[in-house]
Sequence to fold (176 residues):
Amino acid sequence: MSTQKKILLHSCCAPCASASLERLLEADYEVTLFFSNSNIFPREEYEKRLESMRDLAQSYHVTLHIDAWDHSSWLACVAGLENEPEKGKRCLKCFEFSFRRTQIMANNLKIFTFASTLSISPHKPSKILFEIGSQFPGFLAMDFKKKNGFQRSLELTRTHSLYRQRYCGCEFTLRS
Ligand code: SF4
Fold:
């Protein structure tokens, strides 16, 4: 029986997942990727990010699970916060939405630990992510920004020719 530690990695996009995945594999985790991004709009953009995620999973020979694109539920979750700036209150709800779905998937898969690639982004304060994550049993506060994680993600994005988006994800940052 494998003694490797199992972890489900909520993955917002392939570039952020690349260096996060590498870090976890180096730490001897058995990683399963979870693409859960109902926040992404429009659907064509979601599909582009998903396609790149599939390429990454294939390159590293790791399992990828894909959540439904439930943008209407996501919009309901952030209702009333549409005019918030990026990094504002809408983003807190958005993080919570993704973490909740990841925890449900982790339980379904009997992988009782999960982390998120969101912590690699310089635009996403790890402290805030970890505060929200702490509401969810099994959340592991892994700060992928550390040890130049973001820089490494840029290198791996070039190496694997991954698609790097120009905006965070939802329609409210697309228009700004
Ligand atoms: S800006 Fe990004 S983190 Fe904030 S609500 Fe939109 S998709 Fe979510």
Q: What stands out?
A: The longest strand covers residues 29-35. Residues 39, 86, 90-91, 94, 168-170, 172-173 surround iron/sulfur cluster (CB under 6 Å). The longest helix spans residues 89-109.
